[in-house]
Amino acid sequence: MDQKLKQRLEEESTYSSHLKEEMWAQIESQLENGSPLPANSIEGQLNNTEQPHGKGRKRTMSIIKATTGLAAAVIAVTAFLALPPGEAFMKSVQNWFAPEKKIEVEVEGNKEETNGQVHVNEESRYAIYYDKERYKLVQQDGKDVITTIDPLPEPYPQVSLTIEQNVDALPEKLAAEIAGKLADQFTEVRDIEKVSEPVRGYRIHAINGHDRLSEIITVYVTSNERQGSFILTMNYFLEAAEGHGARFTQTLEQFKVLAEE
Questions:
Q1: Which residues of 17-42 are buried (b: 16+ CB within 10 A; e: fewer)?
Q2: What is the full DSSP assignment across the chain?
Q3: Domain residue ranges in the chain
Q4: pLDDT in tens, 95-115
Q5: Tens digit of each residue's pLDDT (9 = 90 or more) over 27-83
Q6: CA quadruple 222, 225, 229, 233: dihedral positive or negative?
Q7: CATH of segment(s) 98-257
Q8: What digits encode the pLDDT tens for the residues 156-209?
Q9: Which residues of 68-89 are buried (b: 16+ CB within 10 A; e: fewer)?
Q10: Mean pLDDT over residues 88-98, rounded?
Q11: Backbone angles phi, psi at 134, to 5 degrees
């Protein structure tokens, strides 16, 4: 846990290397012996740093922003260490993932940048970013469903990416069960594939016909890093395979299982 916090601080902060190391040294001291973490110790270093002359107000404001940001980070870590273990874990998870981030996707051969919105499911212990300008995330029957902000007009089938967890079945067994059920519902079910992208696990692909509106379902089954599995189900149609289908697949590249503390 402490290594992940350190990595996050190093990746996301813009402070100088010696300040990062000093900050982490104090955090490690708190982790090891429970001693207080004096927020003003590092902040003081920033305040006492000599400023080059002639840089003007812009330089001054930069120092103020850095001081404020670092002080906030120290306070946040101090609060984290004071929480009960389980609560501290989930609080830290929220901090590991920025609320939004830019994500590059490739659709129909063209690359574009999308605005990703993070969703952290504390109960199922996973996180995912999705395109907030095209999709919304809703709860349906206890499952997280990413679907279009506005329903598609008739006669188009609805499209969605559903995330659910089975805490009792391992991926290989569950994939075989899902393939068997799909064989009763779809005219064509391909052989189960073992894959490493967009997630590591198993892929089941099924389609009903070859018309432009023919329904397609692609299911990925991946480990929940315990004794169960996550089932990631993409529903779309043939004409949307290179649109919504491609977007959902790349959304799954942002899927992260949160391991137990």
A1: eebbeebbebbeebbeeeeebebeeb
A2: -HHHHHHHHHHH--S-HHHHHHHHHHHHHHHHH-----HHHHHHHHHHSPPPTT-HHHHHHHHHHHHHHHHHHHHHHHHHHHS-HHHHHHHHHHHHS-SEEEEEEEETTEEEEEEEEEEEETTTTEEEEEETTTEEEEEETTEEEEEESSPPPTTSPP-EEEEEEESS--HHHHHHHHHHHHHTT-SEEPPPEEE-SSSSEEEEEEES-SSTT-EEEEEEEEE-SSSSEEEEEEEEEGGGIIIIIHHHHHHHTT-EE----
A3: 2-95, 98-257
A4: 467 899 999 999 988 999 999
A5: 555 545 554 445 454 444 444 444 445 445 445 444 444 444 445 555 555 544 454
A6: negative
A7: 3.40.1000.10
A8: 999 999 999 999 999 999 999 999 999 999 999 999 999 999 999 999 999 999
A9: eebbebbeebbebeeeeeeebb
A10: 57
A11: -115, -25
What phi and psi values does residue 232 have, to the nearest 5 degrees? -115, 105
The angle, 0 to 180 degrees and rounded to 10, between the axes of the packed helices 85-96 and 56-82 is 150
- Token reading at 128: 């995912």
Residue 36 preceded by cis peptide, ω within 30: no
| Cα distance between residue 223 and residue 168, in whole Å | 11
Please confirm whether the linkage preceding 198 is cis (ω < 30° from 0): yes
Cβ atoms of 251 and 136 closer than 8 Å: no
Of the candidates 109, 113, 114, 77, the one whose C-alpha atom is nearest the C-alpha of residue 2 is 77
Distance (Å, rounded) from C-alpha 3 to C-alpha 78?
16
